[in-house]
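JOB MANIFEST
job_type = single_chain_structure
chain_count = 1
residues = 219
[input]
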Amino acid sequence: MVKDTWNSYLVKGNSISKFKHKKKCLKNDIKVWNWDVFGCLDTNKKRIVKEIEDLDVQDNNIDLGETAKLRRMELFSQLRVIDKKIESLYRKKARANWFKHGDINSKYYHFVIRWRRLKNEVKGVEVGNQWCEDPNVVRREVRNMFENRFKATHDCRVSLGSVVFKSLSVEVSLSMISDVTNEEVKEAIWQCEGSKSPRPDGLTLTSLSITRILLNMML
C-alpha cells in the first residue's frame, strides 16, 4: 500500500521538495487508510464490551437462545482480535518513544517498567478447578510446574545405537595417574627452548626454572 501510494504522487520540483511533499501526502493517506481498515479501536472495544455486558445481564434474567450464545462467542472473538491490535499499536508507539527519549529517568520510562511488571505478574493459579490467589500456593504451584517441565525423564534420552567412540586403553589411562619419574622431568626440561619469553620476574626458563627443578631432583 505504501509503495503504490508513494509512486502514484506526481510532484514537481527538486528532490528535497518532492520528498517533503510526498511524505506529507503519505502521512494523510495512511491516516485515512488506518481509519477505513481498523477504525477507532478504543471505540469498537467499548461497543463490544457493552454488548457483551448486555448479553450477560440478559443471561441472568432469562436463558439466552442459541443465536444469542453464538453472538456472544463471536463478540469475544472480536474482542481478542481488537486487544491484539491495541497491544501491537501500543508496542509500536512505545518503541518510537523509546527511540526518541531513550533510557532516561522519565515518567514514560517508569510507566513502561510498571506496565511490564503488571503484565508479567502471576496473580493466581487454578488448583483443582478452583482459582487461588494465595501467595504461598502460587509459589508452590509455579515451582512444581517448572520442576515437572525441566525434570529429566528416561523417554527423551538420545540413543546412539552401535556407534563406537574412540577411548583410551587401560595402560594409557593408568599412565596418566602414575607418579612422574626423574627421567620424565629431565626429558621435558631438555625439550624446552631457552629462547622463550621471560617470566614476570625477568628470568628465562634456562636461568631459573631448570636450576630449581634440578635442585629438587637432587634433594
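[summary]
The CA atoms of residues 45 and 79 lie 7 Å apart.
The first helix runs from residue 2 to 8.
exit_status = 0
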